[in-house]
Specification:
- It is a single chain.
- This protein is mainly alpha-helical and 344 residues long.
- It is 76% helix and 0% strand.
- It has one domain (89-337): MetI-like fold (Orthogonal Bundle), CATH 1.10.3720.
- Helix 7 (146-160) crosses helix 9, helix 9 (197-238) packs across helix 11 (253-283) and helix 11 (253-283) packs antiparallel against helix 14 (309-337).
- The longest helix has 42 residues, at 197-238.
- This is ABC transporter permease.
- InterPro entries: BPD_transp_1_N, MetI-like, MetI-like_sf.
- Residues 97-334 form the ABC transmembrane type-1 domain.
- Belongs to the binding-protein-dependent transport system permease family.
């Protein structure tokens, strides 16, 4: 099967999965306790006012009508309007996505930079102090709750030593990148006009300063998981015949480890990376709450507390779609890393 046919097939499957997510979320709205009208209406609201609010929100329609109208709106990019804010749900949800994506990607980068070298060192120095240290680090990382680690980092590095801020996100990565793009194209500047590199560096430094602790907190478990996976995969690959053949040809040990063994080890690592990245996007609620990070997880919790279902549905749809897209991308990368893996 060619790459094009594979992508078409997986896209159609992904559409069905997303449709299933939409349907499940809609059913959850129906069966969940609590009436959105009760949270919206004043405490002394009359029954007539409550009926009017329900009519304005379309909650007095039959369920199949509500479901059909919601699907029709989603096809057009309309997720409805927030019950509490009165703004388009798509505008609110997608406004929070960049913060969550930044946190998920940053924590993944932290995990990959630390875990793969640790796993390789642990595998190549088996039963040595380096191996024991990496194993102990993995055990601690998997066993440490994110919320406790986040609080400890705040108390020690932020409160005690004043090295990092405790919370919030004053700037995003797009703000730093926008410094260069804005100066280059705004106001009809010539091609050779100097760029405001100082503003870019300052904005990027601020972003890194604020995201360091949340990314470390969220990526600790991921780091430990990838370290253990890299170690076990490298041990398996280093014991195979093609590695012995490469060494017999006189190839340098570094080339054998990183060009051959590590490349084959990356296949299961990329699988876990794709799945965990989707999990980080949808499961960063605790970390976002600890650091007051204005992401999708915080928005979801806030909306659940007030039964703002358009926001809840939109958030869950975005999270489900991210899983589908990431899984498709991971499968497509298989053939690049290992040509023996087809697109079947």
């Amino acid at each position: 099967m060619s790459l094009g046919r594979f992508l078409v097939k997986r896209t159609l499957q992904g559409v069905l999965v997303v449709w299933g997510v939409i349907t499940v979320v809609f059913v959850l709205r129906v069966i969940s306790p609590g009436d959105p009208v009760t949270f919206i209406a004043p405490l002394d609201a009359s029954p007539e006012l409550k009926r009017r609010i329900a009519s304005d929100l379309g909650l007095d329609q039959p369920l199949y009508v509500q479901y059909g109208e919601y699907l029709a709106g989603l096809v057009q990019g309309d997720m409805g309007y927030s019950y509490r804010r009165g703004l388009p749900a798509s505008e609110i949800v997608f406004g929070r996505v960049p913060a969550t994506v930044e946190l998920a990607v940053a924590s993944s980068l932290v995990a990959m930079v630390l875990s793969i070298p640790l796993g390789v060192v642990a595998a190549t120095r088996r039963h040595e102090p380096a191996d024991y240290g990496a194993t102990l680090f993995s055990l601690l990382g998997i066993s440490t709750p994110n919320f406790w680690l986040g609080i400890m980092l705040i108390l020690v590095l932020s409160v005690q030593f004043d090295l990092f801020p405790t919370s919030t996100r004053p700037v995003g990565f797009a703000d730093a990148f926008g410094q260069l793009v804005w100066v280059r194209f705004e106001g009809g500047l010539s091609v050779g006009a100097p760029l405001d590199v100082g503003a870019f560096v300052e904005t990027l430094r601020t972003w890194l300063w604020y995201i360091a602790l949340p990314a470390t907190t969220l990526g600790t478990y991921f780091t430990a998981l990838i370290t253990r996976l890299t170690r076990s995969g490298m041990l398996d690959e280093l014991g195979k015949e093609y590695v012995d053949a490469a060494r017999a040809k006189g190839l340098p040990e570094t080339l054998v480890r990183y060009r051959h063994a590590l490349r084959n080890t990356l296949i299961p690592i990329i699988t876990v990376l794709g799945l965990q990245l989707g999990t980080l996007i949808g499961g960063a609620v605790i970390t976002e709450a600890v650091f007051a990070w204005p992401g999708l997880g915080t928005l979801l919790i806030e909306s659940i507390n007030v039964r703002d279902w358009p926001i809840i549905q939109g958030s869950l749809i975005v999270i489900g779609t991210s899983f589908v897209v990431l899984n498709t991308a991971v499968d497509a990368l298989y053939a690049y890393l290992n040509p023996q893996v087809g697109y079947e």
